[in-house]
Design brief:
This is Putative membrane protein. Keywords: Membrane, Transmembrane, Transmembrane helix. InterPro entries: DUF975 (IPR010380). By secondary structure, the protein is mainly alpha-helical. The protein has one domain (about 5-195). It is built from 10 helices and no strands. Helix 3 (about 45-70) packs across helix 4. The radius of gyration is 19 Å and the shape is globular. The two termini are about 25 Å apart.
């Protein structure tokens, strides 16, 4: 049985207890890198190329870091750079997901959004299976998310109130909100994986009458 939205958020808060400083520190590092990449946009094409090159590794590293917090493994903040250890696979995964989502978006915005949810577990899968091919990570993410894309969408919607409150604080609140969301999503992945691994109940014996 899958966890409710409130249960997933409660698990995230418990995981973040005593780890808020670390979680925010990782976010700040990623934010500073994003600022540098934006500055590189002043040079034609340079910012785009740099973002393309490091986007996959940073995405994989951030996933590894916040998944570690969710699992209570006390990851160092430097884990946000751990994706560079698997740079090629992370780069190809980032590139393929971007292309696939873009192609779906050409049809309509909604198919593109659905595609992004379909591939949303790919980084988690690659983190746990470093030797997996990017296409296999995408395929496994699609299989894992069958019947759960709407659930993931609604889970993210449950943070809207906090997002509005963060706006009132001139964005400062996002330093707490973003890690909260990322760790909740990590718990969503673990809960989803656990629910998929539960074997179906055995079939009743031949001739068994359930009405008896």
């Amino acid at each position: 049985m899958t966890a409710t939205y409130s249960e997933l958020r409660a698990r995230a808060r418990e995981s973040l207890r005593g780890n808020w400083g670390k979680a925010i520190g990782g976010l700040v590092i990623l934010g500073l890198i994003s600022v540098v990449l934006n500055l590189l946009n002043e040079v034609p094409a340079l910012g785009l190329i740099a973002s393309l090159l490091v986007g996959g590794a940073l995405g994989l590293g951030a996933t590894s870091f916040y998944l570690g917090i969710a699992r209570g493994s006390n990851p160092p903040v430097s884990d946000v750079f751990s994706g560079f250890k698997n740079f090629v696979n992370a780069f190809v995964l980032y590139l393929l997901m971007g292309i696939f989502v873009f192609l779906w978006t050409l049809l309509l915005i909604v198919p593109g959004i659905i595609a992004s949810f379909r591939y949303s577990m790919a980084y988690y899968i690659m983190k746990e299976n470093p030797d997996i091919s990017p296409l296999d990570a995408i395929r496994q993410s699609k299989e894992l998310m069958v019947g759960h894309k709407w659930r993931f969408f609604v889970l993210n919607l449950t943070f809207i109130g906090w997002a509005l409150l963060a706006i009132v604080t001139f964005g400062i609140g996002y330093l707490w909100l973003a890690p909260y969301i990322y760790v909740t999503q990590a718990h969503f992945y673990d809960d989803l994986k656990a629910s998929k691994s539960v074997p179906p109940p055995p079939l009743p014996p031949f001739g068994y009458n359930s009405s008896l």
